[in-house]
Structures are given as structure tokens and as C-alpha cells.
Write a structure and sequence with these properties.
Elements (H helix, E strand, L loop, with lengths): L12 H11 L4 E3 L6 H5 L7 H6 L3 H9 L13 H11 L7 H14 L10 H14 L4 H7 L2 E5 L9 H9 L4 E3 L13 H15 L6 H17 L4 E6 L9 H12 L6 H22 L2 E6 L1 E2 L4 H7 L7 E2 L5 H13 L5 E6 L5 H10 L9 E3 L9 H14 L19 H19 L7 H19 L5 H13 L8
Parallel strand pairs: 1-2, 2-3, 4-5, 5-8, 8-9
Antiparallel strand pairs: 6-7
Helix pairs in contact: 1-18, 1-19, 9-20, 10-11, 11-13, 12-13, 16-17, 17-18
Length: about 500
């Protein structure tokens, strides 16, 4: 029997029934990913297994570094086969790391390869996978179709032109691909040179000269409108902690003016301006019925020397240990008091804070919408079996698991769609075990409905995504509008 078999992670008959009859058949709504829209627009065909598997994957890079692999074989310029072989040599050392499961799920589901990957099996696996990548349907768009991905949301800066999203919309592929509005650069004011370079990009795409804070707010609103026209229904922020320092518009304008003039903001002023802008975007999201996602708690770029050499998102991040409750409560409470609380998903990366986030979400649920404030799925360092179970238990014990909007890939890799299968198996195993212990009623239709909701239906109902045709029409209008009237 192969390692990845029908009973993988399913330890009871009830778990297998729930997975086979209810979870497995559900399509995927991937509402948070970092897939490059360009790759989808151009239907990228990957040249080899190293390109599709190791490019930009800092999960694997971290494991390889821990195994003593030189950087050239991780993020560097080594030949593709040499990079792949370095990964193959590392895989046997990843036992009990989720990468061992994910690696073999990906080989099985994408390529039909059931051999265990190691140095000896690497040459044959390299040839077999590369043959399929060269000749088969495993292009960027083909992968989305293969895994039944109905919707995928990328992560996009407000200054992005969305040209590739417009191209995708015109093609009318079966997967709907939408941008996500992520204005994190607007909150980063400690480095005036980087901030002002970004402001130059923002004002160019918005067609608004940005001198004062009011100008930037106008530009952000205009870009928010533009993203909405192109199908965007969610914003996202990847920040250490929720920012909720009191800050009037006049004070925010003063701080912005200083940074625009080239003076770095103090830590206190930077937090104040960021708090003001976070509230501002909350109002924008609420006005349009968007979902605001907060990804909180990650300590990023800890190894300053390597991050400075390789750039952001290169695998030098960890779990942070900040206190979240008071600031998060103030932020949510302020939006609620101003009748501007949007739908919101709170993603937590520190397991010590699972119950903080879960109970905070419960403070702001409202009768107008089931599960308006969500505890997000296990994220980043918690998207493995144990972390997924911790999140499911915290949500179940303090809220309504039945209203949970489910899993995300949060990935830059097109080979990550097996993460949804992995999550679904963990979910069904948790429920199946409790069913067989008599902790849940012996009603597969009741539990099956819960599983189907978590896997797909809840997210479909929670997000107000338009039909692809609406985005295609917006793209067509953009192409035919006179140059002076275009919004980017």
C-alpha cells in the first residue's frame, strides 16, 4: 500500500465516510493566496519540477537550510536539477514535519507518483514529473481546473495596475481570479525613501498628485473603487499587531507631511498614522460589503543580514509574542461604534493566542450575518495537522464551527492545492473520531452538512464575489476608455 492512500490521516471508518462522501467532492474557494496573476494570465507552463516546486517556497528553503544545504541550492542560482536533488536529499530528514506529508501528497495528486522521494528515487521522479509538465495539462490554468478551484484570490498592492487580472477576465477561464486589496505599504512610514517611492507609484496609477494626507486618502479610495470594479471583494493586512492608537485626522496629516518631506516617523507616530489608515480602510471595506482579513502575529525578516541580501519573504520569519487583545478589541469596537464594521477574518499565527482571537470574534457577531467575524484557519506555522486541530478546537469551544469559512493555501506555489485535501482529512478525522466515541450524534447527514459547509459552501455565501463576466466587462471598459479616462 502506498504511503498516500485512501485512509491517509483518516483513522476511523466514520472519518473515511465523512471525507469520501462529503469533503472530497467539494470544489475549492481559495480566498487568500499569493499566486502570481501573471502566471495565470499567461497560462505558464513550468519548465521543470524545481521551477514549479521550489521557486519562492520558503517553507522548503527553511528545511533545506536546517539540513545544511548551501543557500545557492535554496534561493540561489544553482542548476534546477541540483536544487531538486538537494531537496530530495532533505526530504527523508523532514519526517514529522508537515513538508513530508505535503511533498508526497503533491507527487501523488499532481503526477500520480507514489514513490517516497529521496536521493535514490530522485532521478526517476525528476524525469517522470518533467515529462508531464512538458506534455500534459499541468499549466497554471490547468492545475486550477484539475483541482476544482472555483475562485482564487491573489494578493495585490493598491498601486498594481491589475493588467493580468484584466487579461484573465477577458479569457473567461473556468476559475474566477480576483485581486485582494493589500495596502500594507501605506502603513510603513519609518523609511521615508521607500514610503515615498511607493507614494510615487500610487499617485501615478491613481492620477492624483499626492502632497497631503487628504490626497493619499483620495488615491486609496480611487484604487479601492478600481479593485471593486475588477471583482475584488476583500482587503488584507499582514501586520505584527492590530493598530488602534488614537489619532485625529489633523495629527495623521502632520505625521504624513513629515514623512512625505523625507523625515522618518517615530515609532509612536508611525503607529498612530497606521492606526488612522487601518480605520480608514475599514470604512472603505464596510461601504462596499468587502471582507477585511487581518494576518497578525508574524515577526518578519528576523535575520536582518540574510533578509537584506535576499529580500522579503525569503524564509527568515517566526512567530511573534505580542499582546493582541486590547488593541484588537479597541479596533473592532471603534469600527462598530462608527457603524463601519465590515465582515472580518482574524488570522492568528501564535497558538497561545487562539482563544484570545476566538473569543474576541465572539464579541462582535451581529444578527445580520452568520459568522460575520471569523477566526481564520491555521495559518503559516500553524497550517499543519496539530495547528489545524488547535484552531478547530478553539473555534468549536467558543463559537460555531458550523459557520467556519474554511482553509486557504496562503501560498505562492501552484502545487499547494493539496493543502485543501490535507485540511479536509484532518477535519474529517477529528469529527469522525468524536462520532465513533459517541461525542457527536450518529447522523452522517448532519455532520456531512457541517463538513460541506466548512469545505466550500460557507465561504461561497460569506464572500460576495461577482460573476466572472462582470470582471470581464470591467476589463473591456478599461481597454476601450479614452486614455484620459482610464483608472490605471
Amino acid at each position: 500500500m502506498p504511503f498516500i492512500n485512501d485512509k491517509f490521516l483518516l483513522h476511523t471508518d466514520a472519518a473515511a465516510r465523512l471525507y469520501n462522501h462529503h469533503a472530497e467532492r467539494q470544489p475549492i474557494l481559495d480566498f487568500h493566496s499569493h499566486l502570481p496573476a501573471r502566471d495565470i494570465a499567461e497560462n505558464r507552463r513550468f519548465s521543470n519540477l524545481a521551477e514549479v516546486w521550489l521557486e519562492g517556497d520558503h517553507y522548503k528553503w527553511r528545511a533545506m537550510r536546517a539540513n545544511g544545504v548551501p543557500e545557492g541550492y535554496c534561493s540561489g542560482n544553482a542548476e534546477p536539477y541540483e536544487k531538486f536533488l538537494a531537496w530530495a536529499k532533505t526530504v527523508p530528514f523532514t519526517l514529522r514535519n508537515p513538508l513530508y506529508h505535503w511533498t508526497h501528497l503533491e507527487l501523488a495528486r499532481y503526477f500520480g507518483i507514489n514513490e517516497l522521494l529521496d536521493e535514490s528515487s530522485a532521478p526517476a521522479i525528476w524525469k517522470q514529473a518533467n515529462r508531464q509538465l512538458a506534455e500534459g495539462a499541468l499549466t497554471a490554468q490547468g492545475i486550477l481546473e484539475k483541482f476544482g478551484v472555483r475562485v482564487v484570490c491573489t494578493t495585490d498592492d493598491p498601486a498594481d495596475s491589475l493588467e493580468f487580472h484584466r487579461s484573465i477576465a477577458r479569457q473567461g477561464i473556468s476559475t474566477r481570479v480576483y485581486p485582494t486589496f493589500r495596502p500594507d505599504r501605506a502603513l510603513e512610514t519609518s523609511n521615508p525613501a521607500e514610503f515615498n517611492a511607493w507614494i510615487e507609484r500610487l499617485q501615478a496609477c491613481a492620477g492624483i498628485e499626492i502632497v497631503r494626507l487628504a490626497d493619499m486618502l483620495d488615491a486609496l479610495r480611487k484604487r479601492h473603487d478600481f479593485f471593486h470594479e475588477h471583482g475584488c471583494r476583500a482587503s488584507d493586512h499582514g501586520i505584527e499587531t492590530c493598530l488602534s492608537e488614537p489619532c485625529s485626522e489633523a495629527e495623521a496629516a502632520r505625521i504624513f507631511g513629515g514623512v512625505r518631506a523625507g523625515r522618518p516617523a517615530s515609532a509612536e507616530d508611525s503607529a498612530k498614522l497606521a492606526s488612522f489608515l487601518l480605520l480608514f480602510t475599514g470604512h472603505l471595506d464596510a461601504e462596499k460589503g468587502w471582507v477585511k482579513q487581518l494576518h497578525l502575529g508574524a515577526m518578519r525578516n528576523v535575520n536582518a543580514a540574510m533578509s537584506g541580501k535576499l529580500g522579503r519573504d525569503s524564509g527568515f520569519d517566526s512567530i511573534g509574542d505580542w499582546r493582541h487583545a486590547a488593541a484588537l478589541g479597541r479596533f473592532l469596537g471603534r469600527l462598530r461604534a462608527e457603524n463601519a464594521l465590515p465582515k472580518m477574518i482574524l488570522f492568528n499565527v501564535n497558538p497561545a493566542d487562539n482563544y484570545v482571537f476566538a473569543t474576541m470574534a465572539g464579541n462582535f457577531q451581529e444578527g445580520e450575518l452568520p459568522g460575520k467575524i471569523q477566526l481564520g484557519s491555521g495559518w503559516w506555522f500553524l497550517d499543519q495537522k496539530e495547528g489545524i486541530e488547535w484552531q478547530l478546537n478553539a473555534l468549536s469551544n467558543t463559537g460555531l464551527l458550523s459557520r467556519f469559512v474554511g482553509m486557504i493555501t496562503d501560498s505562492r506555489s501552484f502545487l499547494s492545492y493539496t493543502r485543501h485535501e490535507y485540511f479536509r482529512r484532518v477535519l474529517c478525522n477529528l469529527l469522525g473520531g468524536e462520532l465513533e466515541r459517541g461525542e457527536l450524534p450518529p447522523d452522517d447527514s448532519l455532520l456531512g452538512g457541517l463538513v460541506e459547509g466548512i469545505c466550500y459552501r460557507n465561504a461561497k455565501e460569506y464572500f460576495s464575489f461577482p460573476e466572472q463576466m462582470d470582471a470581464a466587462k470591467a476589463a473591456a471598459r478599461e481597454e476601450t476608455a479614452p486614455a484620459g479616462e482610464r483608472t490605471s
